[in-house]
Amino acid sequence: MSLFTVRNWWKTQCPTIEPAYDSFSLHCARLCIEEGEKDSIVVGSHSGQLCIYRPSGGATNLPDLDAEDTEGQAKTTSTPNDPFENVFQHADVILEVQLAFPVLAICSGKFTTTNKTDPRLQLAVLHPTKLSIYQIVTIDGLADHGDHTLLVTLCDHPLSKPAFSLCHGPFGGVKGRDFLCVQHLDGSLRFFEQDGISYERTLATDRHIPSPMHYLQRVDCFVTVAPSWVLECYRYQDIAEALESLRRHDPIWSLCVGEYALDLQVHQISNTESVVVILGENNLLCVSDTGKVRFVKKLDYSPICFHTFVTGWYWEPGARLMLAVVSESGSLLLYESDQIIWSAQLGDIPVAISRANVTGLPGALVTLGPTGLLTIGYLGSEPQLFRVPALNLAPFEIARCQKELLELEREIRAGVDPSDASIANAAAERDVKLGVAIGEETVPCTHPTNIPPGMVIEMCQLSVTVKVEPKLEVLQLTINTDQAIGCSKDAFLFRDVVAHSTEQYDVWIYPVEQTLPATRTVTVYCSYTNKQGITRVLQKEVSLPLKLCLKPCTPSKEAQYKLTLSVVTTAQNIFGNGLGQLFPEFASDGNSATSALGLQPIGGGDGRRVTIVAAKNTNRFRIQSDELGIIPLVLECLIGRLQGGREIGTPSDGEGIARKDLAKVTINGVPSISGLLRSLQTHCELRKAVKQLEEDLEITTGQMRLFERRFVVKLQERSLRALDGILMLLKRNHSSVAKVCLQLKTLRQKMKLAQIDLAAILHLFHLYYTHAANAPSGTKYLEHLTGLLSHSVIDSTEQSYEEMLLPVVRFLEQSGPLKNSTEQPDTFDEAFFYTAKQQERGDVDVSIHSELLQKQLQRLLGRVNDRFGTTGKAAGSGSGRNSVDFEDQPLPEAHNEEAEEEDDDNRTEDRSGSEFANLSSTASEWVNYEKMSDLPL
Asked: What is the DSSP string of 449-474?
């Protein structure tokens, strides 16, 4: 935004008010219609309107800027309340006519030889399929009627091809006459000389993309930009040569511009030189008529249009080349050669700009808007002062913002009809029917993975069936899996899908990492756009086979983390036959009566495992492991199979199973919050290490480029002795770059595994809160916790996962159903965010967010656990040898484990399957493995 503005002097609206104008629609010239006239403004539109304006500046209180200052004019001043502006008058329009075809370009000159003594100029108007030459005729008025102007057609030249642009000039050095050259869309040229002579020529190179063409009168040449972004100069005599054998096809000189030319303009600036000014998409170039670059100006804005002119006469030593460029923000920048000398703000963003000498205002700036707003202005020197408003230093109040947010949500609910969404969803499912099926059979994997060789890796087939009813413009299928799961092809894009068509696409799903995924759910998204431009999205979910990621192993009797599941069904002890009934794919030799099952990752050979133990006489199960990250996959599968055998994306086994007969699964035992915090800390440290290695790699590669440049210089100088030192530096630096790249690749792989582990732990907390034994009534808690514990951990290039999660935790801790009204809420610390965002402290940025996130997440989850009414000990506490029922009753003081084992042996025969809550002792009903030989497997 410039400090100054272009002051308005005269403006009007052209008849066509639609976007029907471009940079070729404006032409300012002296038509020599009458003696002593000023410039006229000719405007043509794509709708066929042709208008000629001659602003008179007829306001009585405005002085003539052409005249010398007088005593009376010196007293006339302009004020902001009395702007220096003329009012449009009807006499300012001298011609307005509707042509039969769109107007592509306009120029004026001596295009006929009918009367060489006539000073009047003719108008050449380019239409898409013809070139018309008109004569402007003024008829004197009689009596009270004023003069009126007519547009007389002199001749029409039909075109065999669609036209693109038009240029004119005294081709061949003729005197007193102008010829015309029409450029077609295919790049061919059509020349029209006087007396009806016309011929067509084609330039040497391919012209698939036409660009503006201009004529250089001093050297009798044409300049244009080829589709290869090369500025080329062709001599007119070479182009006009009739014989193909004598014609020169190559340009006399060429220059690489490197970008598309928005516009070209040519000027003669001295007796010995003409210049070509090219406005590119990012640069402003000035080239002499001999192909020498005068200057290149790099633009830090996107230009729209420009105009060049020479102040003074070119044969005078004081002639200066001026350039006026309009940016996309509406700023007018005035350059003298490559130096900016003025900047002003336009009222509207034009598509064409020119300069004209009108009555009362020499050197006026003429701009034409895209909808036909024609304006004449001048560069004002009175600045538009801007006063910075006072900053709002009021403290940020969470309660007030929460109240405003609730009010906005009420307004949105009042304005949105929920029935429309259900109707739209039903219509989307009718238009496109999406079917997803996963194959239970697995085959050896043939795709590359990060699992060490020697491991048996298998893959399964995912089939996606799409049935389309109406005709669709675009349809896209996206398969979303966990980071630890690979897909042979995860995206399909189709255009112009025919109606009533059905297609099936098969992809292969396989594990790619040594660790377990956070979830085995695969989501297939189908987004499509119909012919009305409406976009809809469908999604289906399906669960992968558990044997794709896990394999059986020896169960462990000791574990750090434990979770207990209680199953409530209408039948007593329905799952007492063993874990082989729940996990038949892992049952060995048809033995389904096992009470313990050990599972480990397919690619894991480091002893990591998760153990499932079933109680003897009650519907209770325990999942235990030394790592939290591998528990949620097994826990999710166990819960799905305990609840009536239903899994995500898989239909139930029978239609006759009623909803009330499904099992209810509750989890006793809180997951370890310390494990989550450790995973966050590990993720933070790895991200810091990756960032540091990226900075080191940037430094070493910069040194490598420096050494390479020095090597080239020494090689050109033939300094063989100096080459030995440069080669030594190159080898050392190359080894440093390779070492940093290898370290960066290794750390990025570790960071990916840390992301998977963190996502798995978050999913574990989500499963616990969803199936907690004493969860409070209502869905508000679960909705907020589900949004917080999303098992999708992604680090962007600009923000870490901690930065993205921190505002959510801060908001939930201080507002909503998870807020503790008894605690004093923390104030909103704006200084923290300003400090953390400093670029020079980029290595500290991640640590600050991670430490604050861990602190507030621990406090929030601790408050949630208290509200859920957890009275037992957290998972991971206890010895693990004897799995006592610690969730239902507290352990006694002075715990004597050996005495309890003896009591357990004496009471085993007297038990009849009663619940743990009715027992008067802490004897264990879990399978107790004192020796490895006692394991049921």
From this structure: -SSPTTS--EEEEEEEEEEE-S-EEE
Cα-Cα-Cα-Cα dihedral of 335, 340, 341, 346, to 10°? Answer: 70
Q: Which amino acid is at 402?
A: Q
DSSP 3-state assignment of 718?
coil
At residue 841, φ and ψ (nearest 5 deg) are -115, 40
- For 145, phi then psi, to 5°, come to -80, 135
How far from chain centre, in Å, is Cα 530?
A: 23
CA–CA separation, 53 and 374 (whole Å): 10
pLDDT at residue 474, rounded to an integer: 86
317-342 confidence digits (pLDDT tens): 888 999 999 999 899 999 998 899 99
**SS3 state of residue 618:** coil
Tokens found for residue 545:
């086979």
- The answer to whether 134 touches 152, Cβ cutoff 8 Å, is yes
Contact predicate 350/326, CB 8 Å:
yes
What is d(CA 250, CA 205) in angstroms, rounded to the nearest whole number? Answer: 8
Find out whether 26 and 305 touch, Cβ atoms under 8 Å.
no
**CA dist., res. 554 & res. 550, Å (int):** 13
Q: Do 507 and 462 form a contact (C-beta atoms < 8 A)? A: yes
Looking at this protein, which amino acid is placed at residue 313?
W
705 confidence band (pLDDT: 50, 70, 90): confident
**Cα 728 to chain centroid, rounded:** 44
CA distance 835 to 2: 32
Query: Helices 673-716 & 801-814, crossing angle to 10 degrees?
Result: 150
**Identity of the amino acid at 459:** M
Pick from 335, 344, 310, 309: which is nearest to 8 by CA? 344
Dist CA 596 CA 780 (whole Å): 37
Alpha-carbon 647 to chain mean position: 36
The pairing of beta strand 339-345 with beta strand 352-358: unpaired
Smallest CA-to-CA distance from 8 within 366, 377, 342, 483 is with 377
Q: Hunting for tokens 């024609």 — which residue is that? A: 374
Number of residues that make up the chain: 937
User: Which pTM does this prediction carry?
Assistant: 0.54
Instruction: Name the nearest CA neighbour of 874 among 732, 620, 596, 672.
Output: 672
Residue 136, strand partner residues: 151
Matching residue, tokens 């336009």: 346
Contact of 170 with 217, CB cutoff 8 Å: yes
- Spatial CB neighbours of 897, under 8 Å, sequence gap ≥ 6: 879, 881, 882
Q: Which amino acid is at 51?
A: C
Radius of gyration, alpha carbons of the chain: 41
**280 strand-pairing partners:** 261
* pLDDT given for residue 255 in this prediction: 93
Cα gap 21→27, rounded to integer Å: 12
- Nearest-CA neighbor of 482 among 505, 454, 506, 511? 511
Tokens of 765: 């907390």
In degrees, rounded to 5, the angle at the alpha carbon of residue 346 between the alpha carbons of residues 344 and 348 is: 165
Q: What are phi and psi of 889, to 5 degrees?
A: -150, 145
State both tokens at 892: 């006694």
- Strand ranges of the sheet holding 303-311, from the earlier edge strand across to the other edge: 303-311, 320-327, 331-336, 339-345
Q: Which amino acid is at 346?
A: L
Q: Report the side by side order of strands in the sheet with 261-270.
A: 261-270, 273-280, 283-288, 293-298
Query: Is 915's pLDDT higher than 70?
Result: no
DSSP 8-state secondary structure symbol assigned to residue 793: -
Could you tell me the strand order of the sheet in which 458-468 lies? 432-444, 458-468, 501-511, 485-487
- Which residue type sits at 491? A
